[in-house]
Each structure stands twice: as structure tokens, then as C-alpha cells.
């Protein structure tokens, strides 16, 4: 699809004279996996914080489905269907895996914050919660306390809880950070699987992940857009290779942001 779901125009964030995000024009197409990459300090997470209004832009616009959302608060952004994960897994460790997903599903029932309700009132959410857990290969862990899950499984659970809130746009911040190869492979395949019928914008440091699943890649350097396009063209861009490795020779494959 060519329809733009998320767009920024001249998005800029300054901190006491330091420009962390500099005049970024971003166009995320509906139905794509769009990766935001760049060397350390490139402004990737700051850009995510601006999109979800954890930070207020110094100037510029953010448009979602054509509507200007620049002045909206984080809760309003979430209600529009922009749901974000974080670099550090954000799940409830002392609830079961099933209960974590059920909390996400409560949003649509109007019971989101009524944690003191009887478990029986929420039983009707068990079936859709288990279906989501099946999607992310966690069905066998449904009754396990979340604190006992391995790190990679916790990240998969976080994706499930994000999906439970029926996002129109999923923002994944470093979904494979801190993982071993086996977990990276599992979560990469999971992101590809759950992207069907959804739009995903992800910050990711692992170029093997990006090259295997991203439709479009935007490269940031010093807060500004350095290059954009499919991996095949971006990875051969001399400016991109110099930003990552200080040289215009060699390949970008395997480099980390």
C-alpha cells in the first residue's frame, strides 16, 4: 500500500541548544515494517519519544491518518491507536502471562483500570488472550508467573500485550536488545508474523534483523535523516557506511546502531 499512515514535517527537538532531532521528515506507509536506524546518539529514541508525546517537539508537525496530533498528550495518542513498546520490557512480573495480556484486552471493555474486580468478571477475555498468546508462541506459558519467563519470552509477551490493545500503528523500541542469537531469531520471526495486516515502526540496532524484515529503512545521523529506502540501497550508501564505520568501504551487514 502507498497510503501514508504517519508523517512528520520538519520534526525538531532541541535541548538547551543541542539539536537531538533535526528537521526530520518521516513517511510511514500503511502495512509496512519501517525501521529507524542509526549510530549511537543519532536521535532514534528521541524521535520515538516525540512521536508518542513523551517529549514535546521544539518545532515541526506530526500527522497520523492526516490529522495533526502534534499538540496531543500521550493518552490521546494511544487512544488513536499508536501503541509503543520500550527498550526495557514493560510487563507485570508478578501476574501470570495470561493476566498480562488480559489487561491489554480490558482497554476495549471500559474496565482497564479496575484491577480489583473479581476474576470471574474477566473470564470472557481468557479465550482471546490465549489466542494472542498462541500467535506469539506463548500458549504453553499462559499460567506461568511472568517473572519466571526468560528475557526473550518477556519481549514476546510485551508484543502480545501491545497487540491486545489493537494498535493501528505499533512502535517497537529496540525489540531485540540484549538478546542471544536464538531469541533474536525467534522475535524477528514473531515481528514478521504479527506485521501481517498491521503497520510497524521500529528502532532496531541489529542490522541482520533490519535487513531481513524491514520494507523501508530511515537512517538517522546526528539527529537528521541521512538516507531512506530499502535495505539493498541504504546499505550501499557511502554516507551511511561512513556514519556507521568511519569508512566508505565494505558492507553494512552486521553493523550495530
How would you sum up this structure, described in words?
The chain is α/β, with parallel strands linked by helices and 257 residues long. It folds into 2 domains: 171 residues, 3-Layer(aba) Sandwich (Rossmann fold); 78 residues, no CATH class. Helix content is 32%, strand content 24%. The protein starts with a strand and ends in a 12-residue tail after the last helix. The relative contact order is 0.17. About 2% of the residues have low confidence.
Concise structural overview:
The protein is α/β, with parallel strands linked by helices. It contains 9 helices and 10 strands. Residues about 245-250 have low confidence and may be disordered.
Layout of secondary structure:
Elements: E1 4-15, E2 18-29, E3 33-37, H1 44-51, E4 59-64, E5 67-68, H2 74-79, E6 82-84, H3 97-106, H4 126-135, H5 151-164, E7 169-173, H6 181-194, E8 199-203, H7 207-213, E9 216-221, E10 224-229, H8 231-234, H9 238-245
Parallel strand pairs: 3-8, 3-9, 6-7, 7-8
Antiparallel strand pairs: 1-2, 1-4, 4-5, 9-10
Helix pairs in contact: 3-4, 3-5, 4-5, 5-6
Specify the CATH homologous superfamily of the largest domain: P-loop containing nucleotide triphosphate hydrolases
Please compute the radius of gyration using only Cα atoms: 19 Å
Question: Count the helices. How many?
Answer: 9
Series of secondary-structure elements, N-terminal to C-terminal: EEEHEEHEHHHEHEHEEHH
- Strand order in space, largest sheet: 6-7-8-3-9-10
As for the CATH topology of the largest domain, it is Rossmann fold
CATH architecture of the largest domain: 3-Layer(aba) Sandwich
CATH C-level class of the largest domain is Alpha Beta
Number of strands: 10
Report the β-strand fraction as a percent range.
15-25%
Distance between the amino and carboxyl termini: 28 Å
Tally of separate domains: 2
> How confident overall, as mean pLDDT?
86
- The secondary structure category is alpha/beta
| Major β-sheet annotation | 6 strands, mixed
Molecular shape: globular
How helix-rich are the residues, as a percent range? 25-40%
Amino acid at each position: 500500500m502507498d497510503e501514508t499512515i504517519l508523517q512528520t514535517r520538519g520534526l525538531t527537538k532541541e535541548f538547551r541548544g543541542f539539536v537531538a532531532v533535526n528537521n526530520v521528515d518521516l513517511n510511514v506507509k500503511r502495512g509496512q515494517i519501517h525501521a529507524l536506524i542509526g549510530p549511537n546518539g543519532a536521535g532514534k529514541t528521541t524521535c520515538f519519544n516525540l512521536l508518542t508525546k513523551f517529549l514535546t517537539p521544539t518545532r515541526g508537525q506530526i500527522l497520523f491518518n492526516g490529522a495533526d496530533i502534534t499538540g496531543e498528550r500521550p493518552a490521546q495518542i494511544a487512544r488513536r491507536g499508536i501503541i509503543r513498546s520500550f527498550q526495557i520490557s514493560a510487563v507485570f512480573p508478578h501476574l501470570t502471562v495470561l493476566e498480562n495480556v488480559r489487561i491489554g484486552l480490558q482497554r476495549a471493555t471500559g474496565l482497564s483500570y479496575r484491577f480489583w474486580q473479581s476474576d470471574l468478571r474477566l473470564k470472557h477475555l481468557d479465550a482471546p488472550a490465549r489466542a494472542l498468546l498462541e500467535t506469539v508462541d506463548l500458549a504453553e506459558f499462559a499460567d506461568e508467573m511472568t517473572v519466571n519467563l526468560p528475557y526473550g519470552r518477556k519481549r514476546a509477551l510485551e508484543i502480545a500485550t501491545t497487540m491486545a490493545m489493537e494498535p493501528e500503528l505499533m512502535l517497537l523500541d529496540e525489540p531485540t536488545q540484549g538478546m542471544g542469537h536464538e531469541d533474536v531469531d525467534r522475535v524477528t520471526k514473531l515481528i514478521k508474523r504479527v506485521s501481517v495486516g498491521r503497520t510497524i515502526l521500529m528502532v532496531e540496532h541489529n542490522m541482520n534483523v533490519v535487513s531481513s524484515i524491514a520494507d523501508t529503512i530511515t537512517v538517522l545521523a546526528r539527529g537528521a535523516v541521512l538516507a531512506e529506502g530499502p535495505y539493498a540501497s541504504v546499505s550501499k550508501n557511502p554516507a551511511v557506511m561512513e556514519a556507521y564505520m568511519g569508512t566508505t568501504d565494505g558492507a553494512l551487514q552486521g553493523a550495530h546502531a
